Amino acid sequence: MSASELPGDLPAFQHDVDASGLTCPLPILRAKKALAQMESGQVLRVATTDPKAVRDFQAFAKQSGNVLVAQHDSGDSALHFLRRR
Q: Which family does the entry's similarity section mention (predicted)?
């Protein structure tokens, strides 16, 4: 997904994880590892291709206390933006 294909209203982020091609639970585990190394308030962007990732990241945010700032699902891929608690 190129920058020109993204909507302009997505949040700014400080860290990025590409979990494309990985299936559950690997995208969540990669996000969890990245969040552990971040400062409170910073935003992590995670790119995924697993169709179940949208629901998985919604559940992960509720369980972990990190805020799911935004999600962008384009059908074959999705971006998830999590703010570190």
A: Belongs to the sulfur carrier protein TusA family.
**pTM summary value:** 0.90
Q: Tally Cβ neighbours within 10 Å of residue 85.
A: 11
In the CATH scheme, what is the homologous superfamily, with its name and number, of domain 15-84? Answer: TusA-like domain (3.30.110.40)
Residue 52: C-alpha distances to residues 12, 14, 17, 29, 62 (Å): 24, 25, 17, 14, 16
* 50/64 Cα distance (integer angstroms): 20
Give the pLDDT band of residue 9 (cuts 50, 70, 90): confident
Task: Specify the DSSP element, H or E, that contains 32.
Answer: helix 26-36
The tens digit of pLDDT for each residue in 34-61 reads 999 999 999 999 999 999 999 999 999 9
Q: Are 34 and 75 spatial neighbours (Cβ–Cβ below 8 Å)?
A: no
